[in-house]
Structure formats: C-alpha cells, structure tokens
Here is the input.
Amino acid sequence: MKLNRTIIYTAAGLLMAACGNSNKSASPDVEATEPANAQTLIAMLDSASKSGRFYFGHHDDTAYGHEWKEGAGDRSDVKSVTGAYPGLMNWDLGMIELDSTRNLDGVSFTFMASEIGRQNARGGINAISWHPRNPLSGGDSWDVTASPLHELASNQALSDTVDAWIGRTADFIGELKDSAGNRIPVIFRPWHENTGTWFWWGNGNATPEEYIALWKRTRKIFDEKGIDNVVWAYSPDKVTSEEEYFRTYPGDEYVDILGTDIYHFDGEAGTAQYRERVDFQLPFVIEEARKRGKLAAFTETGNEGLTVPGWYTKVLQPLMEKYPVAYVCVWRNAEKSDKPNHYYVPFPGHPEEEDFRTFSRESGAIFVK
Ligand code: BMA
Here is the structure.
C-alpha cells in the first residue's frame, strides 16, 4: 500500500493521531506493564504502527552532520533535505560509564539531554543505545579480548564496576525532564546486536544465561532507583532461526519492544541478501510481538554511504509497507573529515536527496517540525 501523503506532525497533531487511531486494528492492545510515564510513549508507538505509520529515526541527528559538527541544536541533515526533523532520534551513552562529559563520538551529554528535551517538545521520540567500554580489558565495546560476563558472577570488583556503570545510565535517563519537570519517556536499547560476535556482551563472549543475567541486573538497578520513564527494547542482530533470536531473550516482563538490527552491506550486490534477511526476520519479530502484547521495531538499519541508488524508495520503503513496525532507525551521518563515507541519510547536494524526500512524503514515515 502506498500512502501518498506527507506525515509531519506537531505535538498537538500527534496527540490527535494517537486518539483517533486507537480502534483501527484488530490486534490486541500492547500490554500495560510499564509505569504510566513509559506507557505514554508505548501508546504513541502503538498507535503509529496500528495506523500503518512508523517513526523515522536517525542517530545523533542534531549533534553533527556530514558537513558540520557541534550543532547548536537546530541543524539536522534530515531537516536540511526534507524540511522536518526525524520523528525519532537515537542517542548513545557510550563513555557515560566513565563519567566522561562527552560520549564515544564526541557528543556532550549535557547537549544530548537538552536535545532529548527539544525532540520531546516537538512531539518526537528519543531512543537511547549504549556502547560501554569493556569493564575487564579497559578497551571499547568491540574489544573481545576479555569476556567480562564469564566472570561477572564470581568477580566482586567487576560486578561492582558493571553495577556502577549501569547506575550511571539510569541516573542520566532519570534526569531527563521536560520544561514542567516531568521525566521524558525514552526507549532504552541496551546490550544490542548480541547475536553478533563483535561486542563483549555478544555471541561467543557470553553464554545465553550470562547475557540474560546481565539484562536482569540492568533492569533491577533501574527499578531500584525508581526510574519509570523507560521503554525497553531488545534488539539482536540478524539471526538464522527464531530460536537463535529468543535464546538470549530476557523474558516478557523485561521487554516492551522486540527489535532487530539488520544492515544493507555490499551495495547493489548486497540488495538481495539484505531483503532476504529482513524478509526472514521481521515477520516473526512482528508476529511474536503481537502475540506477547509488545511493540515491534526495526531498531537499526541503513545503507552506509547510500551506494544503492534509490535505496529509500526502492529498498526500504517496500519493506516498511510489508512490515508494520513502530519505527525504523538509520545510523549516523559522521562528519566527513572523521569518516567520509559513514552516513545513512543524504545531505544537501547528495544525489539521493530527491529519493529521500519522496520517501519522507510517501512511505508513511513520521517526521516532526
Ligand atoms: C558505529 C560507528 C562508530 C560509532 C559507533 C557508536 O556503528 O558509527 O563510528 O562510534 O557506532 O555510535
């Protein structure tokens, strides 16, 4: 189905859409297991997906872009091309565990908190990922030379460190407030892509039991601190079976969103493989989410450097039309002097600008002003 309309919401418009669409689908309501604060965000996401829409997400959207860094908050490559901000912005807490003032990509945590407030005020959604350092080796998230989760149960100093690190993410999230002083609900998506082997919490570096214990530990720390503004997202990478996806699933009482991260690699030559992976995975993610009273999302995707002509309208859009998810999020537009080809949305002057504008008008994607 082609939704031939522009969907750009203001905060008021979103509220009307949320109320107006509540009876349109026969699928069961998403379970009200989270506190009221988080429930508001769950309802927004649920209403979007039940009406055939989805939030379009971009990581670090207003923090920097392909040709600029250290934005003042109003600049965005998505906005420069489409006229509106993405409906969802993703942010990453990597380095907060070390009490750093900036994250692993140089974004100041003070700026991040303020941008989360601005995105919330314009009726948009915020999601948070976390690439923490390896607490055993001192390396980064991708350092798998030491496997801390094998030792977590027996090494008191290590488990104290991990608890303190999780505590810092909880404190940051608990401090996210709107202008009235109310906590801003956010999606938190820790310990992601764990079916892959590249993170210290991933496949080969932790048993399923160790991974699940880490997730439960995370949730316990948030609950003990009374953090009530989190919508929890589980997001393994591509898998070859449904059993693999659920092997590390912490349980329905810990998760609100069943997600998945699948990237389009190898340009045009990789299109068939990308489609196959998504066609395999999203149907069962969506179906299991429906059965369990959860939301489904395409938590990370993208074609790095937009090497596939028409990627947004010819590759992503047909997938989004087939698979009703609450949101899709593409990764960051790194500044060109840092990583010249590491971008996932076009910037002004890029040949894919028009294609992305068409996608923004016709796909049912939600952007905000
Ligand atoms: C990766 C890349 C890295 C970045 C990390 C965390 O996919 O974008 O350059 O440091 O995500 O944002």
The two ends are 25 Å apart (CA to CA).
